[in-house]
Structure formats: C-alpha cells, structure tokens
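Hi Y.,

Following your request, here is the sequence exactly as I used it, all 297 residues.
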Amino acid sequence: MSDVSPAKDFIAGGFGGVCTVVTGHPLDTIKVRLQTQPTPPPGQAPKFAGAWDCAKQTVMKEGFRGLYKGMAAPIVGVSPMFAVCFFGFGLGKKLQAGEKTNAELSYIQLWNAGMLAGVFTTVIMAPGERIKCLLQIQADAGSKKYAGPVDCAKQLYREGGIRSVYRGTALTLMRDVPASGMYFMSYEILQRKLTPEGKSRKDMSVGRTLLAGGMAGVFNWMVAIAPDTLKSRFQTAPAGKYKGVGDVLRHLFKEEGPQALFKGVAPIMVRAFPANAACFLGYEMCMKLLNWLAPGW
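Below is the corresponding structure, written out as tokens. Let me know if you'd prefer a different format.
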C-alpha cells in the first residue's frame, strides 16, 4: 500500500468528482423530483408516471437545462468532498495496515476504511445536498424562491442560522457511512478480481476500470437508496413539518407504504453506473498522471 498523499488525493479525487457530477446530474434531478413529488389525492394519478415521464415533462417545460438545475452546488462542493473522501479511505487503510505498507487488507477492513471516508465527507456533503435538493424541486413546484446556490444558502442562514443550512446531517450520515463502506469495498474487490494474473492494478485496462467503478456505484446505491429518500423528504419539507428521521419514516409509511422508500430507484441505478465509472476512471487517470509528473510528491 502506498503512502497517503493528501495533495494527490485532493487533485485526483476532485477531478473524479467533477466527472461524476457532469455525467450523473440529470438523472439525479429526476430522482429527487420523483422522491419529493406530492402524494396525489385518492383516485388521481401521481404527477409523474415514472422516471421517463419525469424526464419528458422536465425537458418540455424547462428545456434540457432543467435537468442540470442545482448542479452548481455539487460542483462547488465536489472537489473538496471527493478529495476528503478518497483521502479518508486511504487514511483508513493506512491506519489498519499499520507498518505493513504492502499488506492486502481484508474485506471488512476495506469496509471500515470506506465508512471513515463517509464520515469525513458529511461536513461538506450535508449543506450541498440540502441546497441541491431545494433548487431541483423549486421549478417543479411552480415558484422560484432561490436565484441560485449562493442565494439559497444565504436565505437558509437568514431563516434558521447554521442549523438550517446543515439540516439533514444525521440522515446524510445514515446514508453515506454504510454506503461509502460498500462503495470502496466493492471497488477494491472488483479491482482485485479484474486485475490480470501476474500484473498489478496499474495495468488495468480502461474498460475494466469503468466496470469496477460503475458496479461500485450500483452497490453503493443499493445501500443508500432508502436513507436517501428520507433525507430528500426531510431536507425539502417546510420547517417544522417533521420532528426527525423517525417522524419522516412514520409519515412516509402511513401515506405511501414502505415501497415509497425506493422511489426514484430507476434513475438512481441508471445514473449510478456511468457516473461512478467516470469518477473512478477520472481518479485513476489523474493519479497516474500525478505519479508520473511528481513520483515523490
């Protein structure tokens, strides 16, 4: 295992994160709108029949730019977030390996290192997610309360201080800690399985890196989808509607049933593979470039 390099992790992780957002944001917008659409009155159909219908309505009303609503917030937060995320994973591996720098960690050790990365990223992720979700649903609600991510952050702070900006942090932790464990563990396992016999992961082809990264994203969202739905509901609800995560869950089960936890699963899974394939490919390519330009850095 190589030494952790915060500078390299920051640059490579940030580049991988930008690749993720640009590739996956349109489907993320669809996911949030499906998760937060109002419950229809008895006998009436929901506003969106599914992911494809949501995409069509969004493009018809707002153009293709509507699919990229709220992208500025995750783009701004994505470089430090992914930098901290990949650094946290590397640090978690190093702490568990100790002085055995070339030790191959067990699956549970990889899971633990990934969960540490999830804890690290929540400080940046929670406010960015809240702002993103509010911007994504405001056009669908027929009003424009926020002019953009900065204006949204200012209004949230004026309305409730820093607690309002960080609303939903506990739910973000509930989503990201176990999901990040699955994310990094599955990527590392697939890297090991896909590495040609007698060669190192540095020799992995682009196709195999894309496959490992894409599947890691799918496994990540298999763990994250239910808490992500609760998070989206809580962060976009009017202040005071829910007392906490338990209250969100009770309302959701009472009004829509447990299947509502998996609303938006179609666009999530369609997005997960290409977005995370792009992330890990961008990260690995950037790391190779950095190692070539500054091997001792």
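The chain has a mean pLDDT of 86.

Thanks again,
Q.
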